[in-house]
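writing this on my phone so excuse typos. first protein, seq and then structure
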Amino acid sequence: MCNLPFIWLIFIGIIVGTFVIALGGGGAAIYLGILSSAFHLAPATAAATSLVTALPSVIIGTVGYIRQGKVNFHIGNQMLLTAIPAVIVGAFIAPFISTPVYRWVIAIILMVLGIQIFFKRQYSQANQANHFAAAMYGIVSGLMVGIAGLSGGGPVLAGLLLLGLDTFHATATSTYVLVGMSLVGAALHLSNGQIDWAAGLPLIVGTIIGALLAPLVVKFLSRKGHGRYLNRIVALLLIFMGIKSLF
């Protein structure tokens, strides 16, 4: 159970929901890191709780991007075709992974995801679409969701950028893909682990508020050009939580 005051969990949800959706992610990786490292929840419980926590924000974010006409459904659906089967496979093998191995898997994924986001600019410079690489990113993202309860946003965004989408359209399409993966992942993880509602409910309240604020942040960042700094802050936070989850 979580001992952090309700209001602090809402505040954390607002901060994470606002900036992660603004950067095209789902936030499940950050919620998983918080639940695993700060609250020491069992891996299966942390995975189920993190996915359910992230769902409202990615749904709200996706609706906002669709209304702006920024979601590329053709490419997004192609990526979902490879990602969703990987989610199912990952969720199927997750119960057979021991807790120590599970924690190492979570730590490695968090750190790799953080490093990937930190150096994300190299993907935006790709000139040619690599459909095979994008499919592989979809599979990796699905395994992240299925095994560890992450949203898988980093590999999805990288794959979309490799397919030639500009940053804004890649961000919007990434949130659309995350909705499909998170819905399947949450349903599957609910059969393997319980949700810690004491931590999950206030985080969900915060994420909803944050997702509503995210469009304002995107507008500000696009005007001021500060997005790259937030990317690096989130990346460093993920790396730190990956290391912290091992201890």
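second protein below, same order as before
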Amino acid sequence: MRIARSIIGSYPKNPKLAKIQSKYLLGKVDKERYEKELKTWTSKVFSLAKEINAEYTTDGLLRWDDVVDVTFSFLRGASKGPLIRFYDNNFYYRKPIIESKISKDDEKLLEAMSFSRQVKQETGCSSKLKAAFLGPFSYYRLSEDKHYKSPENLMENYANVVAEVIDDLKGVVDAVEIHEPSIFEKR
């Protein structure tokens, strides 16, 4: 059996990047300044992948707060709800509030992953680029559903949307990773 060296999920976000990102989201910093800072820190993730000769790497998910936040970059039909503790740790996420049928709206994700691919190439990193997605069961468990009649309907619709988004990412990313932490819940 062959085991591939890989960087998975998110990378710790530097406070300087977090501050610029917050200002950008509030309209206090322009996109060019934000992307310059984002490029600096994303380059560090890819330089690490290059240094350890990782076969696969994410972009560190530096653009997002967590893997749940990524869903807001490719879905329509859910809004950001309150901060909720992520399982039994000191990590919090914005709960997706599902208000209508979820559908694909992946322009932001495609732009983000294209940006990351370009930065990866500029750093000379040969690792395959991965996009990270929250799995359907965890999306259901971590959301508040105000639309679907059953968990199965929500999970099936979400899985279909993710499949469409993955198709759209062909040629931009080389692989995907699915995060399903809810599988390990005691219940």
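The chain has a mean pLDDT of 95. thats all i got for now
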